[in-house]
Amino acid sequence: MLKNIAISLSLLFITSSAFSATLAEKELQQKFEENIQSRVMDLNKSCDTNIKVVFDWSAFSADDLKTIGIDSYCSEGLKGVINTCESSQIAQETVKEKIENIICSKATPRSIELKDGTLNFGIDFNAANDAKAVQEHLMNNL
Q1: What is the Cα–Cα distance from 94 to 85, expressed in whole angstroms?
Q2: Which of 73, 92, 109, 128 has its CA 20 to 30 A from that of 83?
């Protein structure tokens, strides 16, 4: 269990040369990454998977980091995957087969795309019902 947590934590950190973060921004990024770990553990338990979740920090501005709970938005997207897995055994098996990674980034309007085992969840801070949107996308596209 501890090994899985350590692996998940190490894989959660994503770096991007396009986003040159200050020390304060890096600390916020780390805080968001730590805050989402319980939801990642719930996701992997509900889906019987080892899905890796990362943030694409290059998609977020410095102001986003300071003013918005990015982890909460990403967490809602993960809740949509959890809800999908919990809807039926076949849904859980399909998620386990088709999703290996999830990337939370920023997009306007919200975007949800599954390609090559990676679910890209583009967060739109003005959109509502992220969990429902992700679940509906998965139920209609898996």
Answers
A1: 8
A2: 109
Amino acid at 89: Q
Cα Rg of the chain (Å, integer): 14
- Structure tokens belonging to residue 48: 């019987």
Per-residue pLDDT of the chain (142 residues; tens, 9 = 90+): 444 444 444 444 443 334 578 898 899 899 999 999 999 999 999 999 999 999 999 999 999 988 889 999 999 999 999 999 999 999 999 999 999 999 999 999 999 999 999 999 999 999 999 999 999 999 999 9
The set of residues, in sequence order, having a beta carbon less than 8 Å from that of 105 and lying 6+ positions away, is 55, 56, 59, 60, 120, 121, 122, 123
Q: Dig out the tokens for 90 from the structure.
A: 């076949």
pTM: 0.84
What 3-state class would DSSP assign to 105? strand
For residue 85, the one-letter residue type is C
How far are the Cα atoms of 52, 79, 128, 129 from residue 82, in angstroms, in the given order? 14, 5, 18, 14
